Amino acid sequence: MVREFCKIMVAMVSALAAISLPTSIIAQGSASQPLFEYSAINHPVMGRSGMVASHNVLSSKIAAEILSNGGNAIDAGAALGFALAVTLPRAGNIGGGGFMLLHVAKLNKTIAIDFRETAPSAARQEMFFDDDGNVVLDETYRFSHKSSAIPGSVAGLAHIVEEYGTMTLAEVLAPAIRLARDGIEVTYDLAADLAFSQRLKNNPASLRKFYKPDGSNYEVGEIFKQPDLAWTLSEIAAEGVDAFYRGSVAEKIVADMEAHNGLITLDDLANYEVVEREPVRGTYRGYDIAAMPAPSSGGTHVIQMLNILENFPLADMGAESADALHLMAEAMKFSYADRSKYLGDPDFVGVPTETLVSKSYAKDIASKISMDKALSSDEIAPGDLAIYESDETTHYSVVDSEGNMVGNTYTLMFSFGSGVVIEGTGILMNNNMGNFTLRSDIPDAFGLMGSENNLIRPNRRPVSSMSPVLVSRDNKPVLMTGSPGGSKIISANMQMILNVLEFGMNIADASVAPRIHHQWRPDALEIESGISPDTVSLLMDKGQSIKFSQRSVNMGSLQTVMWKDGFFYGFSDPRRPGAGAIGVD
Ligand code: DON
Q1: Which of 418, 460, 466 for a ligand 1 pocket mutation test, highest count of atoms within 8 Å of Cβ?
Q2: Same domain (yes/no): 347, 430
Q3: Spatial separation of the C-alpha atoms in residues 480 and 126, rounded to whole Å
């Protein structure tokens, strides 16, 4: 009787709630009247003519100004890439490399630009082994001239301007040259970053570039000038990319390499090539996904995870429910296991991308997943694909009103890369040799396992996780996103897409929502703070192995643009300080 009464009360309360609380309060509007979702907790910025989202608001402004002054998103994207090398030295770079997804409006074509760093021709698997054949993960591996692969950023940014932009290379370089020459005001973020980066203090050229003449730290509000970097950028503006790969800058890079046991030669620089690739494509509940193919693993495994999860009614389970998070974790384990075996540089090894992103393979994986019981990593192995044959990195997104789009994820690898600045150039070098697999039982610098497909070979590109992603529907763009975060780039991108497409969040709520990550090895489900302790208990009840020590570590930092009802929406993930999205009207 009491129970019946309670049931009736619950039903009445729910009915009242349904009457008095609309599920979302939306101001009505047309294409000229913004639709604003006032019920959301976080709000994206809006624009009518374009949008820029990057990890540094000063650089976002430079790109937004180019759009306002008639440049297209490709001009603005290239200028932003060069500007971040000055304003965000921990990740923005000309000494690293990355991956861009371009949509070129006049061709109605989406292109994957691979400007990943490449192993020098003298690189050998044994270079990080001792005399007894043991792998040595020491300073040489992490922070020396030997840890650098041949940089691709200058070639990649110049390539997009020259092929698809409307401005000259010198014009897109001009803002970065000005910032390097005249200086930038030191922000709280930059001051903290530099003060704690011991590796920069260990290299004499880095010490001179990033600290005052007496070796002390720059204070917040002081002006930080980078004259050597201004020289390098000016040489590129005057002579084109050849200055970096064949001319005055190349000579300085090689002289510094020779003086410090580095491997990069003049031939290595002269032979560097940007590769245009066909994006890897998939679908999720009627939306089309285009993303980065190998040698990045990012696009392939975002699509693989979405394919697996499409087999489950996630929306009914609810965002951040233990059931939905459990399924995501299981999908991650299977996908990262496959990543470890199959991914490599497609110019050297066969990568079975088509099978990895096939719906039938995903269905078979889905059938192995139990709602109640987590599989341990030992119970999961990379799939046998033969039977399916039939069938501190940074990201920015820039789009314009003509339909041009640039999603760029580029990196030095770790914060400030190898910590090595090339004497006289201001170029901070990457340590992306650390993304190669040294031995199949030893994880890479981000704890990721790999196979012989990703061993160090001359001129090979190491497997990456970086992946800008473009979601569209009926040939109209819906969402462009991307993130830093090493191995967590793939899971962060996937959760962004699910939060918007599956759980109906706006891009701001979708970015802020707490994330999880599992990369198969180690068998640990990492969770951001923000997931409730009750949910964590339910996940543990299902057998998920949860690392509490990891709760405080945040995962990635998404820079996202969305198209909706005739407006551009932008959002910079608050997981990195100083980031900013700017709408252009
Ligand atoms: O290519 C990769 O996957 C890594 N080098 C990316 C490094 C990274 O994202 C560091 N950022 N936080």
Answers
A1: 466
A2: no
A3: 40
Question: Domain range for residue 8?
Answer: 2-37
Q: What are phi and psi of 78, to 5 degrees?
A: -70, -45
Catalytic residues: 393
Tell which residue, 338, 357, 556, has the closest CA to residue 449.
338
Is 337 in the same domain as 435? no
Does any ligand 1 atom lie closer than 6 A to the CB of residue 485?
yes
**Which residue's CA lies nearest to atom 4 of ligand 1?**
486
Work out how many domains the chain is built from and give that number: 3
Give per-residue pLDDT as tens, 256-297.
999 999 999 999 999 999 999 999 999 999 999 999 999 999
Q: What SS3 state is found at 539?
A: helix
Residue minimizing CA distance to atom 1 of ligand 1: 464
Residues 153 and 129 grouped into a single domain: yes
Mean pLDDT, the chain, whole residue set:
92
pLDDT band of residue 28 (cuts 50, 70, 90) is very low
Residues 482 and 551 in one domain: yes
Look at residue 22 and tell me whether its pLDDT is greater than 60. no
Cα–Cα dist 112/99, whole Å: 7
Of the CA atoms within 13 Å of residue 288, those in its CB half-sphere come to: 11
